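Q: A reviewer asked whether we had any structural model of the full assembly, not just the individual parts. We don't, so I'm hoping you can provide one. Inputs are below.
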Amino acid sequence: MVKQIVNPYEVKGSIDYDKLVDEFGVSKINNKLLNEIEKNVGELHFLLRRGYFFSHRDLDKLLKRYSKGEKFVLYTGRGPSGSTTIGHLLSWVFTKWLADKFDVKTYFQITDDEKFLFNPNLNLTETNKLAYEAALDFIALGFKEENLDVIVNTNAADILYPVAIRIAKKLTLSSVKASMGFNDSSNIGINFYTAMQSVPVFLESIRQKKNVPVLIPYGIDQDNHFRLTRDVAEKLGFLKPFTINCKFMPGLKSNDGKMNASDPNSAIYTTDDEKTVINKIKKAQTGGRETITEQKKLGGRPKECNVYSYYDLFFEPDDNKLKTIYSNCVGGSLLCGECKLMLANKVNVFLKKHQIERHKAKSKLKNYFLKKDFDTIRID
Amino acid sequence: MVKQIVNPYEVKGSIDYDKLVDEFGVSKINNKLLNEIEKNVGELHFLLRRGYFFSHRDLDKLLKRYSKGEKFVLYTGRGPSGSTTIGHLLSWVFTKWLADKFDVKTYFQITDDEKFLFNPNLNLTETNKLAYEAALDFIALGFKEENLDVIVNTNAADILYPVAIRIAKKLTLSSVKASMGFNDSSNIGINFYTAMQSVPVFLESIRQKKNVPVLIPYGIDQDNHFRLTRDVAEKLGFLKPFTINCKFMPGLKSNDGKMNASDPNSAIYTTDDEKTVINKIKKAQTGGRETITEQKKLGGRPKECNVYSYYDLFFEPDDNKLKTIYSNCVGGSLLCGECKLMLANKVNVFLKKHQIERHKAKSKLKNYFLKKDFDTIRID
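A: Here is a predicted structure for the entire assembly that you could use as a starting point for your response.
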């Protein structure tokens, strides 16, 4: 078995999430916490019910503040190394749910600098272009202009950099190297970058000139970044950010633990057309048997099936319908071909609507960009 | 004797400039080069004649390009750790002379980020305020708006950062640590900063979309920065910057090899009033003797005298008049008290005019700031 490696720059091995909870020092989301969330907003998103968002830091404390009338803001983001995939969309849809249910504002950071600095083969023009594409996908989810600030790092550097250097001053080379798995042959830019990723945590507090809590939904691979941010927050006199962490959406290939945006054989992109989606899903790894006869006899293995996981995580929010798919699979009556076409149809229905909204977003894109209407330089 | 240390963050010991020439691999400015400069612009600045600007990199090659009709730009700067001193002004006056004589444009970078990141006791609001003050001093020297771009790093980060990360991607932690004398307990910001200092070298080339030569006048303590820049320039497909290096202007105290902007007992500030200047110079270290009788008999020692060096470097451009001061001093007829008052008078005459221009600069400051009228993001 491949050793488990999970950091912002590498995800390898078959992932043991319980082990990550111990290793990273996050807390599992338990039933008590789920009840608290439901109590506050009246319902539970299926990604919470189904354990896709599985761990957190101080979310219980955030809910306590919220229930006493204190608003928070959301902050999430994307590293644009390729086109947006349904894997990204998954956690963004959840972020949108949080934004709606708690009626709070969202900061969305797109790190074209990071992907340029980390990837020897990407130039900045490319990652910047991908950043704009990612912005369209996020806006397409239906955020109101006044409730969303989109940050493309290189474009907003006049706002971000003065905050980033305040963070950077509190982070030694040793701490960043250790957290990120870098060594002295890494470049100075990617080491500095972790400060840039921390900035949105502090923007609303700087804007409002008081401590505003921040909840960050993110894939657990980003945890090292935000552990550093939490340490720095305290040193700078800010609240530690609250976090909620999700698992990875698998890719299309076998042993494809995390959908890889840079690999078209692993990822379904938000811009894929109907035919492409059908072809990709047809080739996807399943938990099916060698022959139809065998499958009818033994049934499929949905727990080892990427196709089933897409229903589970995204395309079948209805628990009863999901249960039916599951039992038909294990019972041998639902075969992989049929199941794949059914999924492809659901994906295409979703993407058709998404692509329309995505297109509409182009004309209003600039309205969503973070504006320099507050000072981040002279704030000491 | 204190060991000689000269890097951007520390200047210590009595400075042996010949040793620095060897150590840093710069070339001494010789008579042949002085003749070349004079041939091109019709005169020689006294700071060249007197060897204050003493070394260079490829200046001969730059003159060859210039004499064939190729224009260059100038780039110099200031780290605002305190108010501007006459030490800073000295090399800026020389830069202004270069700008006028060669009829070229100047980039002036003020590194409020650097001084904040390096100095545990300075906050960013302070260094940013000092940056604006430094800008006034530079503009006061008489630059035309169209010939000067003033860059305050934190304010211009949207233009600088996309170029800085291109540079940063080519600089490993090991190379920056070795050059700057940093270790793993240094912060990630000050390590990244060297990329920010390199950016202005490339701005005119990016603007004009072709390689434009850059000449950087700077104190030799900054050489490590620009050695790194020269390496990176080649890797990025730009011309290596050309350089011309000056010695340090001594401070007012004894063994004060470099005027220290953070120490009012070491520095004369451009904003000092008449009385302050007189008092500071009265207390300055000289090459005088213990008693007046002794000095009348043995004469003073101008070569060991900070007061004399201020005539030499700044306040007596006329070689004949300087010679008279020198011989009257060593002859014992010019005593320190009189000599100091004469200097104080010259400094005050200069500062009075400077302070008027400095005040005028306030209303037009913004006109000089680097404008985002060209793209530094999508340029690959």
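A: Points you may want to mention in the reply: Chain A has two domains: 8-252, 274-364. Chain A touches chain B through 47 residues (CB under 8 Å).
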